[in-house]
What does this fold into?
Amino acid sequence: MTPTRRRFLESSAALLAFAPVALAAGPAAAQGAFDVAEIMKPGPLPEMTIGKADAPVTVVEYSSMTCGHCANFHKNIYPYLKEKYVDTGKVFFVHREFPLDPLAAAASMLVRCSPKEKYFDMLSLFFEQQQAWVTPSDPVAALRKLTRQVGFTEESFKTCLTDQKLLDDITAIRQRASEKFRVDGTPAFFINGRPQKGLSTKDELDKALAPFLK
It folds into this structure.
């Protein structure tokens, strides 16, 4: 890796100038249904899932780590989804990255660099603490501070954020979602292949899942 690339990822100013194309944050608009098998094709990174793979309902979420709507879902709706539907064998939940900006890409990389069994714990932590690392003038320093709390060292932090292949793979996941499934905002949900907008309340979640659980 070139020194320029390393400095680029280690400085907050350069990180914020990095350019996956910015898209509007907000729930994605619903489209027609897609083939579940096509949606479930694995991407370049291991799938991050929770629940039984043979559950009657599969929910796929694309989210951006800097998205306020995504933070709301993971703080207020996801625990309810997990307790009522995932832990009872009704829903198989899949989370995929769809970074809307360079800071979201950096956060996604750091979550991916945590142990696989801690992925959803780290995801929840980043969303719970979102304002602590999104709003500061030096977000990279804020991310460094947050990750130190969960065992990252200075070396592992830098190694993660300078992993070009990881960045490319996350970008590829986002690109496929945009091109194949017309994802144009976050959070974007697919329930057994059918796009679902909203899910910002427990009631919306119950109503969205009800037709698939009869």
Summary: The first strand starts at residue 48 and ends at 50. Residues 1-8, 10-14, 16-25 have pLDDT under 50 and may be disordered. The chain has one domain: 3-212.
